[in-house]
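Hey,
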Amino acid sequence: MTTSRWTLARPSLWMTALALTAIRILFAGEQQTGRDRFLAVPIALESGWPGTYTPSDVLVQAGLHSGFHLYVGFGHLAAMLGISPVLLWEIGLLVSLFAISLLMLRFGELLTGRRDLAILSAMLLITMPGFRGGLAWTPFPSSEFTTGIVAGAMGFYGLWALWHGQWLRAGATAGLLFNVHPSMGSISAVFVAVTALASGGDRRRAAQALALVALLASPNVIVMGLHLFAGGAPSATFAEVTQYQRQHTLRNYWDVGLPFYAALVALAVAGSGTLDAALRRHVRLAIAAVHALFLVYIIGVELLESTAVLMFFFFRASAYLKVLGVMLAARLAGSPCHALSGAGRVRALARLRGGAGAHLAPATAVARLSRRFPRAV
């Protein structure tokens, strides 16, 4: 597998990541009235200063009893330090964006093979709009400090470790991530499991990684299970949940998201064909895992209308497609063999034409399913 030459010991990597962080802040600013920020800060305030909100405030009380403990922890930390949670929010946002910038640069060099293309693709990802539907653009990177942006950084770090054969580090990241964001933790665990099942080599270390996922995720599993069986959190019907979680259902975005989503899938699969065998296998396993999660989500939410499946927010797996699609498109566009070699151009076109049906099959299947359901209003 190609090893990134842009190591953490290189000052140029840190300076470029700082520049990308500044560009993101200047380009997108901060969503002061974002939905998550609007909910997250009240949860932190109620955690650090109990009684700030009434017991009848369903959203705040449900948040306190949910599996997302970052806001609760920040509330207690702010109270202990005697400062406003908003200040911690600003610091957390900057640190998270910087970590994501570092990861995007290293992934970019790994996937494109060139530092200039890594910077270009990372800048494109950093400045993209944060959200445009479940199957197109997902909240990554966000312009507000939420569990999602922290989970995004942890998730991509876990994927980096997995692709470099660091099984225990990948398993530990997935398990800890479940305590920060159960959805992204579950997605990372699926990546570890799929890679382990497809691994023809080190099955023992793969099994150890999966056991580590289960062990480190168990605190949040226990907490969520206790609240579920004790009835600690206010209950809500599927219809009630979708009224304030409309952005977490796929049906609202199938019409506008499919073309971009289909392009991402096609570019990611076609671009992976130019990678070495080991990295190509990892990329395609990740793409297959994302679509397996989408299928579970479509069946659970759109067909069975399960609130439990809805609250896992598997649509967030599209963040990985977004990164893979953009970076592998940059690789295709900048590949010298395609630009200079007639044979290379023929091979690239044959890959795209010959595999087009396979590349677009997931999007086509989703399109067919989407016609069965009306858009939510």
